[in-house]
Structures are given as C-alpha cells and as structure tokens.
C-alpha cells in the first residue's frame, strides 16, 4: 500500500516494520466505511507478507481513533435495505472482522495511542500485542451513554482486562486516561511525553526484532487458542509445534548464534533499508 493523498490510511515500510497511520485527523480519526475497508485490506495483506515482522498502528493529528463516525451511522440508518438484509448489522460485523484480523495476524502488532481512544479505537488497542499510550490519552466505551452498544468490541475488552472490569466500563460508559489504561492492563506502557513515546516504540520494536518471526507467530497462535478449546487439546498441539520448532531452521540458527556469540540472522536483518510496503 502506497501513501495516497485521499486515503484514510497511510502506510510506509521501514525495513521489516510496517507503519500504518489512520489519516482522518479532521474527524479525530473516527472509523468510517472507507477507513474500515482500507484497514481490512491492509491487515489481510500483512498476514500473507513474510517480509513484514511488525506492524505499528497509530493515528494522525494527535488522536488515535475516536470510535465510529456518527455521520456514517446516520447514512446507514437512512440507507434503503434490500429484503432480508441489514446494512447496519453488516457494517458492525465488518468491524468485528477487522478486530479478528488484527488480533490474529502472525506478525507483532504495536498500537501507539494518544488523544482520543474511544469505541473502535478502544477495540483496536485491545487487540494489539503491545499497546503504548500517552498518559493523557482519553479512553472510553461511550456507546451505552449514546443508547447503543459496544457489540464487536466487548468480547475483546473482556479478553484483555477480564470480565469484572469490562462489565464496569460497559455499564458506566467508562472514561479514563492512559495511566488508568495501564493500571487496568489494557496498555503495557504509559509515557508522559512525545519523546518518551517514541523512545518506547523504538525499544519495543528492537525487542521484537531480536525474536525469531516464525517463533513469534506460533507463540501467538498457541496463546490465542487458550479459552477457545480444551486445555489438553491446546497442550497437545503445542507439543507438536514445539517439536517442529526445535527441529526447524530458526532453532538451528538461534542455537548456532548463541554458541558463536553473535546475533541470529533474523536479528541482524532487523534493520534493513526503508522500502515501500506492497500490501495493497
């Protein structure tokens, strides 16, 4: 995906890292149909792109994402539906598809959140592998205070911070800052300046690049299976995956690098020249 002037999503490659920037600053990066589809296309392509090892998602103009675009909701309500169809439900479920995609891609996903992190933006923060926030970011699940529900977001909030806190936020239309997001376990790091935010992002990406990409992908696969199937079944498959990893090329290279006191090839190659991301 190349940066296009009228695109709701900008993309650039820096080595093995793909930077995606939500680009609707005039609307505080609220989620409309165009942005939703561009994000889905991008993450579908990312999932199949072995050259990308990490994705950083952020918002332009000082906000991450202020939730759903109210103008789009109004348009959907006015839209004449064909018999047996429900455009509002279809649009809402499409956002769930995006959250499933971001949650499940084999690459590490890093969200850098500042400003508004509401509704859909809240959901995206919940499905990142690493979420870094500004202390003064504004988090919230405002849906119930507007008479609607966080339908696609709610399951991922429960997975992220647990049922008890998720219920409280849901029924209270919870609003809180980045420091509280860190306390709740929604965010992994909270920073108090732009410089600190950038430094933390660089540190996290450096740590990701020291890990073997295949091992990271399989580790995510095992962790995401927990709670969705019997534990014994998860452990049986994990044992098989461990055997495959131990006998695979990454383990051979990692072991050899350790013996030779050098970086493994994947870590040494973590900072290649900047290139355009072909994830159209």
Structure report:
With 280 residues, the chain is α/β, with parallel strands linked by helices. It has two domains: 9-208, 2-enoyl-CoA Hydratase, Chain A, domain 1; 211-262, Lyase 2-enoyl-coa Hydratase, Chain  A, domain 2 (Orthogonal Bundle). It has helices spanning 33-47, 70-78, 87-104, 120-126, 154-161, 163-172, 178-184, 194-209, 213-225, 231-246, 249-260, 265-268, and strands at 9-14, 17-22, 54-59, 108-113, 116-118, 130-134, 138-140, 175-177, 189-191, 274-275. The strands form two sheets. Strands 9-6-4-3-2-1-10 form a seven-stranded mixed β-sheet, with helices on both faces. A three-stranded mixed β-sheet has the order 5-7-8. The longest helix has 18 residues, at 87-104. It is globular, with a radius of gyration of 20 Å.
Task: Identify the notable features of this structure and list them briefly.
seven-stranded mixed β-sheet; about 280 residues; alpha/beta; Lyase 2-enoyl-coa Hydratase, Chain  A, domain 2; 12 helices; disordered C terminus; three-stranded mixed β-sheet
Report the sheet with the most strands, covering strand number, pairing sense and barrel closure: 7 strands, mixed
CATH architecture of the largest domain: Alpha-Beta Complex
Rg measurement, Å: 20 Å
Number of domains: 2
**Gross morphology:** globular
Write down how many β-strands occur, each being a DSSP E stretch of 2 or more residues.
10
Query: What is the CATH T-level topology of the largest domain?
Result: 2-enoyl-CoA Hydratase, Chain A, domain 1
Unreliable stretches (pLDDT < 50, length at least 5) are 272-280
What strand line-up does the widest sheet have?
9-6-4-3-2-1-10
With helices defined by DSSP (H or I, 4 residues minimum), what is the helix count? 12
Q: What is the terminal separation in angstroms?
A: 4 Å
CATH class of the largest domain: Alpha Beta
Order of helices and strands: EEHEHHEEHEEHHEHEHHHHHE
């Amino acid at each position: 995906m190349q940066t296009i002037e009228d695109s709701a999503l900008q993309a650039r490659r820096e080595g093995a890292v793909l930077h995606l920037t939500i680009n609707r600053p005039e609307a505080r990066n609220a989620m409309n149909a165009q942005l939703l589809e561009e994000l889905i296309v991008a993450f579908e392509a990312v999932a199949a792109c072995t050259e990308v090892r990490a994705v950083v998602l952020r918002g332009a103009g000082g906000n991450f994402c202020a939730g759903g675009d109210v103008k789009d909701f109004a348009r959907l309500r006015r839209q004449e539906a064909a018999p047996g169809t429900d455009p509002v439900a279809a649009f809402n479920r499409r956002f769930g598809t995006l959250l499933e995609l971001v949650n499940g891609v084999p690459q590490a996903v890093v969200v850098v959140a500042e400003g508004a992190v509401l509704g859909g933006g809240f959901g995206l923060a919940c499905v990142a592998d690493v979420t870094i926030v500004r202390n003064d970011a504004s988090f919230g699940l405002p849906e119930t205070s507007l008479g609607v529900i966080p339908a696609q977001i709610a399951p991922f909030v429960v997975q992220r911070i647990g049922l008890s806190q998720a219920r409280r936020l849901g029924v209270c239309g919870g609003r809180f800052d980045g420091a509280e997001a860190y306390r709740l376990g929604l965010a992994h790091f909270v920073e108090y300046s732009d410089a600190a935010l950038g430094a933390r992002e660089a540190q996290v990406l450096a740590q990701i690049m020291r890990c073997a990409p295949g091992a990271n992908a399989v580790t995510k696969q095992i962790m995401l299976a927990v709670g969705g199937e019997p534990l014994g079944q998860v452990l049986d498959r994990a044992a098989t995956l461990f055997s495959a990893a131990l006998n695979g090329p990454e383990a051979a290279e990692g072991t050899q690098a350790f013996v030779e006191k050098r970086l493994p090839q994947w870590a040494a190659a973590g900072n290649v020249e900047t290139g355009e991301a072909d994830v159209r």
